[in-house]
Specification:
Elements lengths: L3 E8 L3 E9 L4 E10 L3 E3 L2 E3 L2 H17 L6 E5 L5 E4 L20 H8 L2 H8 L8 H11 L1 H6 L2 E4 H10 L4 E2 H4 L14 H6 L10 E2 L4 E4 L2 H7 L5 E3 L5 H7 L9 E5 L2 E8 L6 H5 L3 E4 L5 E8 L2 H12 L6 H10 L20 H11 L8 H27 L6 E4 L6 H11 L3 E3 L4 H13 L6 H11 L3 E3 L6 H13 L1
Parallel strand pairs: 1-6, 6-12, 9-10, 13-17, 17-18
Antiparallel strand pairs: 1-2, 2-3, 4-5, 7-8, 11-12, 13-14, 14-16, 15-16, 18-19
C-alpha cells in the first residue's frame, strides 16, 4: 500500500506536540514536527487556558507539514478531558476556557447535591465524583455568571473547539463528552434529566459523534496561514486517555492499564459499564472508549506530584533533571514515609515539597527533607496506590489481574515501573511512550480504511515499538508491610 501520512495534535496539560505518523501497512513510525509549552494564565484570580495561543501553535504544526512536504491525509486532535468553551449564536467564544484546576468549583459538589443527588448522578453516568467534572463546572459557571448562559448557544469540549476553529464545523465527540458527567453510560447519549435539574439548557449540547467521524476540510482562512493541504480533520478518540488505551499493545481482551503522565489513569476495558454500589463506593469511572467500549478506571494524581515539585525547586533556583531526581530517590532510604497521592492538598499548583512534608507531619511520619527523600516518597506512594487500585479492580471483576500495561510518558520512569511491579506483585509491560499520539494516529488510520479495527491497530503497535517488561522481585515482605502502613493512612 502507499504510505499513509497523518498528523496527530497531542495536547497535554503542560505541553503540546504535533507528531507526523507514517504507516506503511505493517508498522507505524513517528516524527515530532512541533512542540510548544501549554501554560495556563491566571487573570484576576481565575485560571484560564490560553486557547488562542494553542490554536496558533496547531497551525504552526500544520504549516510545517506543508513546508516539509509531508502531504498528510488527515489531522486528529486529542486533549485532556472535562474543560470546554461556550459559543454564542454567531459561533464566537464567550470567554476563554477555564482550567480544571481553577478554584471556582470549590464547594460546587455540595451545591449540586441539593438539586441532584450524587447517587442518582453516579447511577446514570457512572463517573468518579470529582469537582472539575464538566457538569460541576457548568453548574459553577451558571451560578457565577448566569448572563453567559443567556447568551450561550453551544458547548464544545477543548478538542471539539479546536476542530471547529480549523473547519468551521461543530461536533461533540463521544469519548471527550463521557468525561463530563451528563452522558448516560448505557445509552451513550445525553442524560438530560440530570442537566434539567441544574437548569443547564439542552440546546448547549450537539449530536454525539463516535471516533472516526469526519469533521471536514480546513477553512480557507486557515489554509491562507498554513499553506495548501488537502488534509481532512477526523474525530479521533479525542480524550487523551481514550487514545492512550487504544494504543495498549495487547491482543488480550482482559488487561489492566495505567496511562501514566500528569495524571495516572488506571483501569480496565469493558464491553458494558459497571455501575453498582461497590463501584460507587470505590469511586470508579465509566468513561467512553473506541468501538463502544468502556474505560473503567480511577483518576489518580500521577506525575503531577513530581512535575510540581520540580517547578518549586526551579523557583528556588535549583534546576534538577528528572534523571538526577530519580538517582537521588534510589539512594534514599526506602519505605520511610508515604502520602495519599489523591489528598486534596496536592490538587492545586504551589509548593508541593512543603505540602508533602506537612502531610507527613500531620500523619506522624518522618518528614522527607532532601530532594531524593521527597521523590522517593512520591514514587513509593504512587506504586502503593496502584496496588490498592489493582486490588479494587480484582474485587470488582472477580478475578486476579495477570499483567499491568503502562503506556504514556510515565514509561520513562523506569524506577517507578519497577516499583509498580514490586508493589503489585505482577509483571509490568511498559510502552509505547507516545501512546496518546499513537492511538490518535491509529484511529485516523482506521477512519481512512488503512487499518481494519482496534485489534489490528494494537497488533501493529506491538510490532512498531520496543516494549520493556518489569518482573516483581520475589521478596514481598517489605512491600506488604509498607502497604499495610499506607492503607492505615487512608
Amino acid at each position: 500500500m502507499k504510505e499513509l501520512k497523518m498528523l496527530a495534535i497531542d495536547l497535554g496539560a503542560s505541553s503540546g506536540r504535533g507528531i507526523v505518523g507514517c504507516f506503511d501497512g505493517e508498522k507505524i513510525t513517528l516524527r515530532e514536527n512541533h512542540r510548544f509549552s501549554n501554560d495556563p494564565v491566571i487573570v484576576n484570580g481565575r485560571m484560564y487556558w490560553d486557547i488562542l495561543r494553542i490554536f496558533h501553535e496547531i497551525k504552526q504544526s500544520i504549516t510545517k507539514t506543508v513546508l516539509e512536504g509531508d502531504d498528510v491525509s488527515t489531522i486528529g486532535i486529542d486533549t485532556w478531558g472535562v474543560d470546554y468553551a461556550l459559543l454564542d449564536k454567531n459561533g464566537r467564544m464567550l470567554a476563554n476556557p477555564v482550567h480544571y484546576r481553577d478554584t471556582r468549583t470549590d464547594g460546587i459538589i455540595e451545591e449540586v447535591a441539593k438539586s441532584l443527588p450524587l447517587s442518582e448522578l453516579y447511577a446514570k453516568c457512572g463517573l468518579q465524583c470529582i469537582k472539575f467534572n464538566t457538569i460541576f463546572q457548568l453548574a459553577a459557571d451558571k451560578a457565577d455568571d448566569p448572563e453567559i448562559f443567556e447568551r450561550a448557544d453551544r458547548m464544545l469540549n477543548i478538542p471539539d473547539l479546536l476542530n471547529y476553529f480549523l473547519t468551521g464545523n461543530k461536533a461533540n465527540e463521544y469519548t471527550i463528552l463521557s468525561t463530563g458527567g451528563f452522558l448516560d453510560a448505557v445509552t451513550r447519549d445525553y442524560a438530560f434529566e440530570l442537566t434539567d435539574k441544574l437548569g443547564i439548557p439542552r440546546s448547549l449540547f450537539g449530536k454525539v459523534v463516535k471516533p472516526g467521524n469526519r469533521v471536514g476540510k480546513l477553512l480557507p482562512q486557515v489554509l491562507e496561514e498554513t499553506g495548501k493541504t488537502d488534509a481532512e480533520v477526523i474525530n479521533v478518540a479525542s480524550h487523551d486517555t481514550a487514545s492512550a488505551v487504544l494504543a495498549v499493545p495487547t491482543q488480550e481482551d482482559d488487561f489492566i492499564f495505567i496511562s501514566s503522565g500528569t495524571w495516572s489513569l488506571m483501569g480496565t476495558e469493558l464491553k458494558q459499564p459497571l455501575i453498582n454500589d461497590l463501584s460507587e463506593k470505590l469511586n470508579f469511572a465509566n468513561e467512553g472508549g473506541v468501538d463502544g467500549t468502556i474505560r473503567f478506571l480511577k483518576n489518580i494524581m500521577g506525575l503531577w506530584l513530581i512535575q510540581e515539585s520540580r517547578r518549586q525547586w526551579r523557583r528556588e533556583g535549583n534546576e534538577y533533571s528528572f534523571a538526577q531526581m530519580e538517582t537521588w530517590a534510589k539512594e534514599s532510604r526506602p519505605f520511610r514515609s508515604f502520602i495519599n497521592p489523591d489528598d486534596a492538598s496536592f490538587a492545586t499548583p504551589g509548593n508541593m515539597p512543603e505540602r508533602i512534608r506537612e502531610y507527613c507531619r500531620r500523619t506522624g511520619q518522618p518528614v522527607p527533607e532532601t530532594v531524593g527523600e521527597v521523590v522517593r516518597c512520591i514514587y513509593e506512594s504512587l506504586a502503593l496506590k496502584y496496588r490498592y487500585t489493582v486490588e479494587s479492580i480484582n474485587r470488582l471483576m472477580g478475578k486476579d489481574a495477570k499483567v499491568i500495561h503502562v503506556v504514556g510518558g510515565g514509561t520513562k520512569d523506569k524506577f517507578l515501573s519497577q516499583m509498580t511491579a514490586d508493589a503489585c506483585g505482577i509483571p509490568v509491560a511498559a510502552g509505547p511512550e507516545e501512546a496518546t499520539a499513537v492511538g490518535n494516529l491509529m484511529m485516523q488510520a482506521i477512519a481512512c480504511g488503512a487499518v481494519a479495527d482496534v485489534k489490528e491497530a494494537r497488533r501493529i503497535i506491538a510490532a512498531s515499538f520496543e516494549l520493556k517488561k518489569y518482573e516483581p522481585t520475589p521478596e514481598r515482605t517489605a512491600w506488604d508491610e509498607a502497604y499495610a502502613r499506607f492503607c492505615a493512612l487512608n
